[in-house]
Each structure stands twice: as structure tokens, then as C-alpha cells.
Amino acid sequence: MTTHDIANRYYQLATQGQWATIREELHDENIICQEPEKVAAWGQAVTISGREAIKVKSEANDAMIETIHSQYCGQPIVAGRFFSLVLKRDVTFKNKPRMAKEEVCVFEVKDGKIISERFFF
Questions:
Q1: Average pLDDT in the chain
Q2: Average pLDDT over residues 35-63
Q3: SS (H, E, C) 2-63
Q4: Each residue's pLDDT tens digit, 17-36
Q5: Distance between CA 44 and CA 7 in Å, rounded?
Q6: Average pLDDT over residues 64-86
Q7: Would you say residue 42 has pLDDT above 90?
Q8: Closest residue by Cα to residue 11 from 105, 75, 104
Q9: Which domains does the chain show, CATH number per domain?
Q10: Which one, of 12, 60, 51, 11, lies nearest residue 31 by Cα?
Q11: What is the pLDDT at residue 23?
């Protein structure tokens, strides 16, 4: 799959909330996930390596959510081996007030798989 193919498939699955399918189908086994430095203050790792570790992180994050009121995925922008998109969520975390989350996501593709993902929020 080309970077365009991966970006379009990611968009298709993200608009349906199919995050597990994204991990299983599009992530390389040795993917690297880079979060902003501020997540360390929340007790989260800034850098995570491997599809299984990202799955564990995602499941832990999902467990903290009480309600997802809405979510949005912007159209991908592709340049070479990279694509980016905007993700937005209106969410209520357990024991926290409702909040709007917005982030820019940048992905690198190699050999038909996402090998790195970086999140900016």
C-alpha cells in the first residue's frame, strides 16, 4: 500500500472509530509513538515502541473515558512518506468535566505500514 492508500484507509477507519482495526491493519509491529512532553506529568510515557505497547496504552486511555459525545477526523494531507490529519473529540473522562480535545497527528509510512506516529496537542 502507498502512503496515500494508508492515509485514506486510516481516515476511513478513524471516521468510524475503528481504532483497534487501525492498529492491527495499518501499524508496523515495531511502530514508535511519540506523545507531547506534557503527558509525562499525567503519568504517561512520552515514547512508546511496539504495536502491543500502543494497544495497552490505548486500552488504558479508553478505560478513563466515561462518554464520547462526538469525534471528528479531518481529511489526510500526504507528502512523501508522511501524512497528517486533525482529530477532535468532545469527551467526558471519568470523574472529570466534559472537554474538547484537538490534536494534529503525523504518521510516517514505510513498506506499506505506519512506522511512527506523533501527536501534537
A1: 96
A2: 91
A3: CHHHHHHHHHHHHHCCCHHHHHHHHEEEEEEEECCHHHHHHCCCCEEECHHHHHHHHHHHHH
A4: 999 999 999 999 999 999 99
A5: 27
A6: 97
A7: no
A8: 75
A9: 3-120 (3.10.450.50)
A10: 51
A11: 97
Residue 61 binned pLDDT confidence (cut-offs 50, 70, 90): confident
- Contact between residue 89 and residue 61 where contact means Cβ atoms under 8 Å apart: no
Q: What is the pLDDT of residue 72?
A: 97
R_g of the chain, CA atoms, integer Å: 14
- Give me the sign of the Cα torsion angle 88, 95, 43, 63: negative
3-state secondary structure 51-108: HHHHHHHHHHHHHCEEEEEEEEECCCEEECCEEEEEEEEEEEECCCCEEEEEEEEEEE
Q: Give the three cell numbers for residue 120.
A: 501534537
What the block records as the C-alpha cell of 117 is 506516529
Taking alpha carbons only, the member of 9, 37, 16 closest to residue 107 is 9
Confidence (pTM): 0.92
